[in-house]
Amino acid sequence: MRTDGWRSYPLSVAAILLFFIVYSTIRIFMAKWYFVPEHGYLTPLYSPCLSDSCVEGSSHFGTPFGAFPAWIPLGLAAFPFVAGFRVTCYYYRKAGYRSLWLSPQACAVQEPHKKYSGETRFPLVFMNSHRYFFYAASIILLINVWDAFHAFKGNDGGFGIGLGSLIIVANVLALAGYTASCHACRHVMGGRLKHFSKHPVRYRLWTLISKLNTRHGTFAMTSLVTVILTDAYIMAVSAHWITDLRIWN
Ligand code: FES
């Protein structure tokens, strides 16, 4: 019955989500152009690279898994957790339910499903695992921070800064904002407390996270874009389509 342009939101979000799904699927199975050895740039889609099949120098945490056959993604150790974190995220749930699952597509729009079972049945019951993905994503964020330290390698092998270094750091900041503003993070900081006055540190953290939490959707979309841009830049430099812009050494 609605006559306004309610379709534009679900359609545009569906286009963005589908682009990211297709792009990242192609990239994780590409198994090349994910590392720039001269400057230590490693794409977040392949981090941590824990296989003997990884390009030399890209395994910042060793290679405990041995060689992978070509059909196993080199970023397998982290990618399922990062993907699970996004899929079960409260913001992406709203976006996904409206744009992909059509449940519902917008306020006051009838949905095509005959019955509404919420998140009580397979496969949507899986959404309740979000807090566990938050723990895994927090560890992976620390790995990304470690990768960023490795991205300041100059032309002579010493310290150097390139455009890639800045892009990688910007991506880590966006990912940190996304992870810290997570609803599960807010609950870990201040959930289940009866008296904030007895837990002043947790209260302060909860207050801070609550402020970030109001911008969670912005962090979610920004970090999605920065992950794609970081990967695309590293791919372009690694494939020698472009040269890294050097700022210092
Ligand atoms: Fe979005 Fe946790 S609610 S990452």
What would your notes on this structure say?
- By secondary structure, the protein is mainly alpha-helical.
- The chain is 50% helix and 4% strand.
- The chain is built from 8 helices and 4 strands, in the order αββαααβααααβ.
- A two-stranded antiparallel ribbon has the order 1-2. The protein has a two-stranded antiparallel ribbon with strand order 3-4.
- The N and C termini lie far apart (62 Å).
- 34% of the residues are buried.
- The model has no long low-confidence stretch (mean pLDDT 95).
- The structure holds FE2/S2 (inorganic) cluster (FES).
- FE2/S2 (inorganic) cluster (FES) binds next to helix 3, helix 4, helix 6 and helix 8.
Counting copies of identical and different chains, the oligomeric state is single chain
Tell how many strands the DSSP assignment holds.
4
Main sheet, how many strands, which sense, barrel? Answer: 2 strands, antiparallel
- What is bound: which ligands? FE2/S2 (inorganic) cluster
Structural class: mainly alpha
Termini, distance in Å? 62 Å
Number of helices: 8
Transmembrane segments: 12-35, 70-92, 132-152, 158-180, 219-242
Protein name: Succinate dehydrogenase
Keywords: Membrane, Transmembrane, Transmembrane helix
